[in-house]
Amino acid sequence: FCPGAAPRSHIATCLRAAMSTLGAEAAPPERRRPTLTSKTLFVIGAMNMIDCINVNLLTPYVDEMVSDFLHSSPEDPQVGHIVGILIGLYSLCEVIFSIFWGAIADRFGRKPALLIGLAGSAIAPIMFGLGRSLPVVFIARAMDGVFCGNVGVARTYLGEICDSTNEAKAFGFLSLCFSMGLFIGPILGGQLVHPARWAPSVFGGTIFDTCPYLLPNLTYSIFAAISWVIGAVFLEESLPKEARGRSFRSSPAAA
Predict the structure, then answer these.
(1) Which of 18, 30, 186, 197 has a 20 to 30 Å separation from 242 between CA atoms?
(2) How many Cα atoms within 13 Å fall on the side-chain side of residue 161?
């Protein structure tokens, strides 16, 4: 008997109580929500910085590179036109494919989208540095922009694991990493180009002699590969399985 229940309704009351108890016991345990940690913040910050480095890594040497391919002077107006297209192609592909990466992140999760994009960002610059003709470097630059189109996914991921106590700190660190990328990119590109000239005993007669623009791109790719390994180990998926598969039209990750 259930105390306090009327004689005619005590059975129904007990049944409702029993059903409520069974329902609570059968409910699946609530999924633990990932939280912001120093390792996670470092990985997301590194991804953001790598994207910024990638944008301006070529600015110190791109005029010389294009003029070499055209067999003309860097002052040739045609060189300036091609340089502008080559630099802008990265951002164009990044913007166009950001919607695609948002859809991928909503369909399969944030972590796979971030890791796939970062892996592509580690491969495309090597192709760019090995390029010996304009079509090859244009294709490599476009690929680079495509894979870095997931920068919006990184911001979405960070927003999902932050709360009111650390949101300002997290996004402030993201801005710091972006600014550092603006500083590091041109330094890598300017200091590491033509290594056979400033270290002939090490790089003379090697592939870095025949491909003088490879070393800065290879160095960047190594940084990207290290970030990929750290991300694969430490990043937790922030999008529950039951929330995946939404239409990319409503994708917040592409915003």
Answers:
(1) 18
(2) 26
Query: Could you tell me which residues come within 8 angstroms of residue 4 by beta carbon, excluding any fewer than 6 positions away?
Result: none
- Residue 70: left if φ>0, alpha if ψ -120 to 50, beta else—which one? alpha
Residue 36 corresponds to which tokens in the numbers above? Answer: 């912001």
Do 218 and 126 form a contact (C-beta atoms < 8 A)? yes
- The residue type found at 182 is L
CB atoms near residue 107 (< 10 Å): 16
Give the tokens for residue 197: 């000239």
CB 211 within 8 A of CB 61: no
Among residues 169, 56, 48, 179, the alpha carbon closest in space to that of 117 is found at: 48
> Tens of pLDDT along the chain (255 residues)?
445 545 545 555 655 655 555 444 444 445 566 788 888 888 889 888 888 898 899 999 999 999 999 999 988 999 999 999 999 999 999 999 999 999 999 999 999 999 999 999 999 999 999 999 999 999 999 999 999 888 889 888 988 898 888 889 899 999 899 899 989 999 999 999 999 999 999 999 999 999 999 999 999 999 999 989 988 988 888 888 877 765 444 555 555
- 114 touches 240 (CB < 8 A): no
As a whole number of angstroms, the distance between CA 194 and CA 215 comes to: 8
